[in-house]
Amino acid sequence: MAVQSETMKPPRSEVGLLGWLKKNLFSTWYNVLLTIFSAAFIYIVLRAVITWVVRDARWAVVTTNLRVFMIGRYPRDEAGRVLVSLGIIVLMTALTWVFRKAKGKPRRWLVIGWLLSFPLITILLRGFSRESPFLPLVSEDIWSGLLLTLVLAIVGILASFPLGVLLALGRRSKLPIIKVLCTMYIETIRGVPLISVLFMSQLMLPLFLPPEIRLGTVMRALTGMALFSAAYTAENVRGGLASIPIGQYEAARAVGLNEALVMGLIVLPQALRAVIPAIVGQFISLFKDTTLVVIVGLLDLLGIAKAVTAQKEFIGLHKEAYAFTAVIFFICCFTMSYTSRRLEQRLGVGER
Amino acid sequence: MDQRWFVVPNGLALEVSTPTGVQWMQPDMSDEPTSGCIPLIKKVVKASTHRGTRIVERQKAVPFWLDERVLKVLGQIAFLILVIAVGAWAISNYLDRDLTFTFRFLGEEASFHLAEGIEFSPTDSYARAFLVGVVNTIRVASLGIVLASLLGMVAGISRLSDNWLVNKIASVYIEIVRNTPLLVQLFFLYFAVILKLPQLKMKDEVTAIILPGPTYLSNRGLAIPWPRPSDSFSSWWPFLIAALIVVVVLWILRARGVQRTGRPSFNMLWVIIAFFTVPVIGWFAVPGNPLVLDVPIIEGLRATGGTILSPEFVALTLGLVIYTGAFIAEVVRAGILAVPKGQTEAARAQGFTNGQVLRLIVLPQALRVIIPPLISQYLNLIKNSSLAVGIGFLDLYAVSSTMLNQSGRVVEVFLMIMASYLSMSLTVSLIMNIVNRRIQIVER
Predict the structure, then answer these.
(1) One CATH from 1.25.40.10, 3.10.50.40, 1.10.3720.10, 3.40.50.2300 for A140-347
(2) Other Cβ atoms closer than 10 A to A323
(3) How crowded is residue A16: how many other Cβ atoms within 10 Å of its Cβ?
(4) In this predicted model, what pLDDT tens digit does every residue of A246-293 receive, in sequence order?
(5) Which one of B183, B190, B422 makes the best mutation probe of the A interface by having the most chain A beta carbons within 10 Å?
(6) Pick from A79, A279, A35: nearest CA to B164
């Protein structure tokens, strides 16, 4: 008689809902206690939040001012221009998504498209001159709301990028004077709070420029943002440069490239690829840091939230306004960090 | 015609002797090696062979404007001149506005009120006002660092808990806090929570939230009991010092024992007990109680006694703790995850209990990974405390901006701000680097 091995089913207490509950919530006596406390905590918090959101909160402060939150003091008649700009970005993102695996020509067109879309959007938003019938001037000093937040973050990171790369190269350079100056700049900026850099760009910058050059408040804030962000970009890029094996330099030198070509063609492309996740992280934190311009008197998303709670009919509705602001920031930042984490996993960019 | 092949640094080269002199050719790889040779060096002044490598001197030396060594020095000098020129241009613009640069204003009367921190009257100097700000920043930052570390530790470990609910609560906290700006959180806490708390007293009735202590929480801040030294404190504090000495002595003895025999001669518990018994003996030895608990009382419309923390202080500290705590939690989690699972399993297999595994195996190894990013989180907390100006807490930054508006000394005050933040950052990173060096593995 052949011996037949019989596979036994797992005991009922280990599978299904009951098994899951036992394993994850009630495995030991202290886990039972923890579960009870956590459940009570969640119940209290959720109940308080839901009753407030559904019943007690007066969302009129947000719904009436939705346009103000989004574009602030941007003229009502010109609001279409913001929508078109948004459309361009959405279109470009969609195209990038569709052709994400393409190589060669479509890819080149995508890059050209992105490069063109930035000046296009700038012209669209800013317009030409006050009198021009087509696209009249909307000075950047009256841009506000979410629009200003986005502009500050995107322009800040883009403008900081070239400077950051140069600083990183300078800090790794073997030439002592350049190295010392770049290191000093990076460490000073990284050692002081952003708000002091912003204040400096608002108050001190005009003192050190000749009276003919007049920068608006938004331009000054942007300068501060870019100068601040550049130091952090530099450190990220430096990390990327350090991750490139020395063999890459040596091989490129042996093939006969000079130092500049080694940097430009061999090392930098690889280094920049390696720092993409870090740059995304930096963009997210810069996006959050744009709120600091409130302190120097600009009306970004948070500034608008602060302003609408001073309106006569909505006085004192801080909770609603700030909760709404927080939700917008959360959605943006969470989406960005989630997407970048997913991309990182899929492309394995981080661990090459 | 004489032809010889030589090894040169970038491959092979063919030496061809012609009636006019020696010519060097190098094979063009795209073609047949013998048919297509490109001339390498037209004229050779001196050629010698060294270990099979032909060393060739060219006819002319490299002109100095193409010499890399000279170029490097020249480039640096040019860069320096550029930086100095831009600086000089900026300074000349500054001087064109008839502005001077002096720190003399620091001695002048400040003539503004500061209602937070060490005592300050409007007749005090600007220098003292700045000191008030510095002390306030240090107060917030040091309390914040301690509390944020605790919160971060708890949240980080919860994030790795087996318990599904605890794990999810920690994740939700971390994600929400990390993905919203600190300033929004501070505004929310200050304007929407703390300022909306009940008043301290309304119509002869205490309306503040009373916590055990008694602690009064209201929109005027937090009034907590605080121990104050009484007359006999002076005869008690020698006992504190004695306790410290006893602990240090015991500690050294214990460390000696470990060095000699490999195991501690007495339990760590004895050290702790000794630390507490000496002051307790002193407490009963001296006449009266050396410390008196000063309890807040509500008098009229305000609380007196104890210690009263202003609403701004509470909001700022709470906001910084919640925000930094979430970042520290991620640091802690990453640190614990960085310890290979085999370590836990091996320790469990040797019979360590769960607590011992965490205390003796995982945490010491995790700390090595945790400390460096923890340093940068502490530095961030210090820098972020400057957001106090948004909610009106009088920290270093807020006081400085008042000073700046009063005195008009923009550049001087900015230099002071920068110097203060830089020196605080440097101090923290110095301390933490020492800690870091002590716990890092000493490589063989």
Answers:
(1) 1.10.3720.10
(2) 20
(3) 10
(4) 899 889 988 888 888 899 899 998 998 888 888 888 999 999 999 999
(5) B183
(6) A35
